[in-house]
């Protein structure tokens, strides 16, 4: 029976609650996992801490317009689409600890370089280079998680890592923005560079077991090895199914994600309320990661489907309420945002667990990077379409379309899960 342990302890007995927490205790009992998790806190915060400062420097200090901000978005995203899969072919053969160390140190050095960027062109180049360096970190971390985690604990490990990542997306930009009120953008860059150095120092003590390399592609040209990450999805139906699901889900989420401020305004809430709804979404995301980590890993696609079948109706229902002028009490709207954020993150934890459990150790970095590239590409394509839908049909429209697509995606994944 695949039902999560958490659901079986709803008639709350203290012993049952302790049993539900066992996967997390087991993960934290692994020294390498503890160090990876402690390093993830400054490393993931470094990804988001100076975002507000970079935007403020471009838009308010240098007075640049939408073209520069659009180029900034590309500089943040493109490395994970282009450089990530290329670097992953090297990561699969390199010393993992060395990759983790160099990527954090390189990110720190390039963040310090932002302090002396004289104009927007140099700043964008540094952001791009920093993204290229950082694009090696994610596949290396996925490989390290696979290497140090027993398969029954993969969901718990990914739940913890995803929870830290989700917290970073919410807390780090807010902290950076608050700090920006006290110091110039260059001061924020210095502190962010220190975060990467802290992650580097934590990882110095990381002890990883040796990797069992399978050198079946030892003589292959470099680009053939790069293609091996994509080819792995074609050889494994489960891998392909979760990639299609995750990429399609990412597309539908970002179809309406950038329109949330407009929906909040249409429902009659002000800018302060919008900030609180984003916080609620972040709390939901952390909760979703925590709950997903408690699930048994034997039916991951079923878990993803069920999360989609919760997310889709909630999204469509909220959009219809806005379209029909139905007043939604603010606490209820915050709960809706928490559910939307939580189910989104809930789907990512099984996806990463499947990547680690179904991929041979000698190509985990390439497969992970190929998957990240596919999801990032889907993410980049969706906001423009979402804005066109808003222009043509009104603010609730992309939420209705996106929620409907998520429902169809969930039904398709449900059918696939039960057919296996």
From TrEMBL:
Keywords: Cell membrane, Membrane, Transmembrane, Transmembrane helix
Membrane topology: Multi-pass membrane protein
Subcellular location(s) per record: Cell membrane
Annotated Gene Ontology cellular component terms: plasma membrane
Principal subcellular localisation of the protein: membrane
Entries under SUPFAM superfamilies matching the protein: MFS general substrate transporter
Molecular function in Gene Ontology: transmembrane transporter activity
Signal peptide: none
Boundaries of every Major facilitator superfamily (MFS) profile domain copy: 12-420
Transmembrane segment boundaries: 36-62, 68-91, 112-133, 187-206, 238-256, 271-294, 301-324, 330-349, 370-393, 399-418
UniProt protein name: Major facilitator superfamily (MFS) profile domain-containing protein
């Amino acid at each position: 029976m695949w039902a999560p342990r958490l659901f079986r302890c709803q008639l709350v007995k203290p012993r049952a609650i302790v049993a539900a927490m066992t996967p997390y205790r087991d993960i934290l009992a692994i020294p390498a996992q503890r160090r990876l998790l402690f390093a993830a806190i400054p490393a993931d915060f470094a990804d988001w801490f100076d975002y507000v400062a970079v935007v403020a420097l471009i838009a308010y200090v240098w007075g640049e317009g939408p073209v520069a901000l659009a180029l900034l978005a590309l500089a943040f995203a493109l490395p994970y689409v282009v450089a990530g899969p290329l670097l992953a072919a090297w990561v699969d053969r390199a010393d993992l600890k060395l990759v983790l160390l160099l990527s954090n140190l390189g990110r720190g050095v390039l963040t310090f370089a932002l302090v002396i960027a004289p104009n927007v062109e140099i700043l964008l180049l540094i952001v791009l280079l920093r993204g290229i360096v950082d694009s090696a970190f994610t596949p290396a971390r996925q490989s390290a998680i696979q290497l140090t985690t027993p398969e029954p604990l993969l969901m718990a490990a990914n739940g913890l890592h995803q929870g830290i990542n989700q917290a970073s997306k919410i807390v780090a930009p807010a902290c950076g923005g608050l700090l920006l009120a006290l110091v110039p953008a260059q001061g924020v860059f210095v502190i962010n560079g220190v975060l990467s150095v802290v992650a580097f120092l934590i990882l110095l003590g990381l002890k990883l077991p040796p990797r069992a390399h399978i050198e079946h592609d030892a003589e292959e040209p470099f680009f053939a090895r790069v293609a091996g990450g994509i080819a792995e999805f074609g050889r494994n139906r489960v891998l392909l199914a979760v990639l299609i699901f995750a990429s399609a889900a990412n597309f539908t989420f970002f179809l309406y994600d950038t329109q949330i401020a407009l929906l909040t305004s249409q429902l009659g809430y002000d800018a302060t309320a919008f900030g609180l709804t984003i916080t609620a979404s972040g709390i939901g995301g952390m909760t979703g990661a925590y709950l997903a980590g408690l699930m048994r890993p034997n039916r991951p696609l079923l878990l993803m489907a069920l999360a989609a079948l919760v997310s889709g109706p909630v999204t469509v229902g909220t959009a219809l309420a806005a379209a029909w002028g139905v007043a939604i009490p603010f606490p209820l709207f915050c709960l809706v945002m928490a559910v939307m954020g939580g189910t989104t993150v809930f789907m990512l934890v099984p996806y990463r667990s499947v990547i680690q459990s179904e991929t041979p150790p000698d190509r985990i970095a390439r497969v992970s990077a190929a998957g990240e590239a596919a999801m990032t590409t889907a993410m980049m394509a969706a906001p423009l379409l979402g804005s066109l839908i808003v222009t043509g049909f009104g603010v609730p429209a992309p939420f209705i379309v996106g929620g409907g697509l998520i429902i169809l995606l969930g039904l398709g994944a449900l059918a696939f899960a039960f057919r296996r």
